[in-house]
Specification:
With 192 residues, this protein is α+β, with helices and mostly antiparallel strands. It is 28% helix and 29% strand. The protein has one domain. The chain has five helices and eight strands; from the N terminus they run H-E-E-H-E-E-H-H-E-E-E-E-H. Helix 1 runs parallel beside helix 4. The two termini are 16 Å apart.
């Protein structure tokens, strides 16, 4: 399975980010891009897109880690249970600017947009899948609790990642096809 297409990418898709240098320089460069391009003023379907601003371990927001790292599950024999940690993902990080481009170009024919209920949270999520280039952005529409304006909605940026595991691709295809069937949309045709 490949997440690299042999055809020409859409003109709106930015080049990959160079990730040379020390980890500190790479992280600083990625965080600068994240702050300038994702955290400020991004919109989808007329609503703000807001990443997770919580800080769980260091000075960087959880939203930053969800678009630059991946979850690794491993067994810890000392406590006899699985533990989860986030590890740097160079492929995801190199495509950080793709998050903004895909959201801004969601109506492009290269992007499959569909909704599906998340198995864990039970919340409805919106998937923006640049299928031919193996990258997906996942958003979740929310309402701010206790907001004086009860109609203030926004999209929470859940994550974005390379679809580099066949199980991910199969899951996305299943969700996309179920959405198309529910909405009575024509099925996505294979591109030649």
């Amino acid at each position: 399975m490949s997440n690299e297409s042999s055809s020409t990418p859409p003109a709106w898709l930015p080049d990959l980010i160079g990730l040379d240098g020390s980890w500190e320089r790479i992280r600083s460069r990625l965080y600068d891009i994240y702050t300038r391009e994702i955290r400020r003023g991004l919109r989808f379907q007329g609503l703000p897109v807001i990443p997770d601003g919580r800080k769980s371990e260091d000075e960087f927001e959880d939203g930053f880690w969800h678009v630059t790292s991946r979850t690794l599950k491993k067994y810890n024999p000392k406590v006899r249970r699985m533990e989860v940690e986030r590890i740097y993902d160079s492929k995801r990080s190199a495509r950080l600017r793709w998050v903004v481009a895909i959201i801004q170009n969601a109506t492009s024919p290269e992007v499959s947009v569909f909704e599906s209920v998340d198995d864990k949270s039970g919340r409805l999520r919106t998937y923006l899948w640049l299928e031919e280039w193996g990258f997906v952005v996942i958003l979740e529409r929310r309402t701010l609790p206790k907001d004086p304006k009860p109609d203030y909605n926004f999209y929470h940026l859940v994550t974005a990642f390379c679809v580099d595991i066949s199980g991910f691709q199969a899951d996305l295809e299943k969700r996309r096809d179920a959405y198309a069937q529910k909405k009575q949309l024509p099925p996505k045709r294979e591109q030649s």
